[in-house]
Amino acid sequence: MNLQFRLRKVYLIFVAVCAVLGGARRATAQDTYSPAPENLKARTWFQDAKFGMFIHWGVYSVLEDGEWVMETRPISGADYAKLPNFFNPTKFDPATWVALAKAAGMKYITITSKHHDGFAMFGSKLTDWNVVAGTPYGRDVIGMLAAECHRQGIKLFVYYSQLDWHLTDYFPRGATGHRAGRPDSGNWDAYLNFMDGQLRELLTNYGEIGGVWFDGMWDKPEADWHLARTYGLIHQLQPAALVGSNHHKNPFPGEDFQMFEKDLPGGHTTGFNPEQGISALPLETCETMNDSWGFRITDEHYKSTGDLIRYIVRAAGRNSNFLLNVGPMPNGEIQPEFVQRLTEIGKWTKQYGESIYGTRGGPLAPGPWGVTTQRGATVYVHVLDWNQPVLALTGIPRGVHSAKLMRDGSNVQLSKVDGGIVLRLPEAQPDEVDRIVVLELENSK
Ligand code: FHN
After folding, report:
1. In whole angstroms, what is the distance from residue 84 CA to residue 92 CA?
2. From ligand 1's centre to the CA of 215, what distance in Å?
3. Angle between the 94-104 and 141-152 helix axes, to the nearest 10 degrees?
4. Closest among 277, 306, 326, 243 to 435, alpha carbons compared
5. pLDDT string in tens for the chain (445-residue length)
6. Index of the ligand 1 atom closest to the CA of residue 68
7. Cα(76) to centroid of ligand 1, in Å?
């Protein structure tokens, strides 16, 4: 055996031992996390809720070029530090935002409390790099929105970026943030303490928080993020708060829901991680209305209302929530193109929301024709892509005793065949985004 071969063998054994030990450590931590009863209840609520509003808003909005502008342009930390001086959203009215979300049929809001630029959109006592101390606006955006959410009875989740392009202590650096002009030294533990401190503020000062939506761990996937400590802190402060992380991996111990970005569960078009599987946790997929998360003035690549509704439906059919993004403008208003789409979605959810809210995906696997959702003995067949007059469905668990078209309650002709049913579909209406056939199943014996 030559030396190179022997070294390689030693290395592979080392990797294998690490993997076993790592796996064992994970398994132990997984075993020790048992979600509190209120957390389990919140998970059920979350799965029933189905539809939420994602909000990307920060000082980057001023430059009207998305939330990554510091990195993409690039802008040094010293120059970026001038940006908060221009953040004065005099038209920000949290009541209007919340009312818009509710009118669209959204049941919760997830807002960026801190994005990768590290700027806190809340009055953090741990740094002046925050909206209260650092902007002429001087008001606590998260606090204002939280108060309004509580008033209007909608849950508020906070997005928190673990990745930070501002703090020196975010060191060693990860894949991004190298052009901010920070010294090549820093104290990682101090950074993690700071992060936990800000999370403590968020979960202490703003009443009930639905959950924490982490992002950015992918920047340093190999680092020790002290997840058990951070997740434990959140659950200790608010046991019902749901923890999720957009690390593009399979869920880690202590997480309460699993998220997907710009892909339905099981889809891998974005290439974030082809190996990411679908866990048994509640699921959520997030998407933009054009191509941008943070406000980008030149982005006119809007999805149609119909496509957005079909996204909600396809997500629900895969047992997943849908979190639809808006990037408010620097003046605090949500742009008219988004308002229009949300209002139109609201008309649909008002009429057909019953086929989504409180349902679970299935019982049939999604097919080329569409998806199914179910609640008790009721199955909603969402015909999204089917030009044929008949649709054969196999695998319905019990006999079907009626089939009706949801839009007008008329009977849909149903034939029972060996192993399934055949529906004779009424023609789609020109503006119909989802032909829904409601099946009532026979009672289970
Ligand atoms: O880098 C972010 C991006 O700005 C945005 O916040 C999205 C939302 O899912 N997540 C990250 C990329 O994975």
Report:
1. 16
2. 7
3. 50
4. 306
5. 333 333 333 333 333 333 333 333 333 344 589 999 999 999 999 999 999 999 999 999 999 999 999 999 999 999 999 999 999 999 999 999 999 999 999 999 999 999 999 999 999 999 999 999 999 999 999 999 999 999 999 999 999 999 999 999 999 999 999 999 999 999 999 999 999 999 999 999 999 999 999 999 999 999 999 999 999 999 999 999 999 999 999 999 999 999 999 999 999 999 888 888 999 999 999 999 999 999 999 999 999 999 999 999 999 999 999 999 999 999 999 999 999 999 999 999 999 999 999 999 999 999 999 999 999 999 999 999 999 999 999 999 999 999 999 999 999 999 999 989 999 999 999 989 999 999 999 987 5
6. 4
7. 20
Residues with CB under 6 A from ligand 1: 67-68, 215, 246, 261, 286, 293
Give CA–CA dist 393/208, Å, rounded: 44
Nearest partner of 284 among 336, 361, 398, judged by Cα? 361
* 65 CA from centroid of ligand 1 (Å): 14
159 Cα nearest atom in ligand 1? 6
Whole-prediction pTM: 0.93
What secondary structure does DSSP assign to 349-391, as a single string? HHHHGGGTTT-EE-SSPPBTTEEEEEETTEEEEEE-S--SSEE
Euclidean distance between CA atoms 396 and 398, whole angstroms: 6
Structure tokens at 330: 């620097």
Q: How far is the CA of 287 from the centre of ligand 1 (A)?
A: 10
The closest-lying atom of ligand 1 relative to the alpha carbon of residue 54 is 8
Residue nearest to atom 1 of ligand 1 (CA): 216
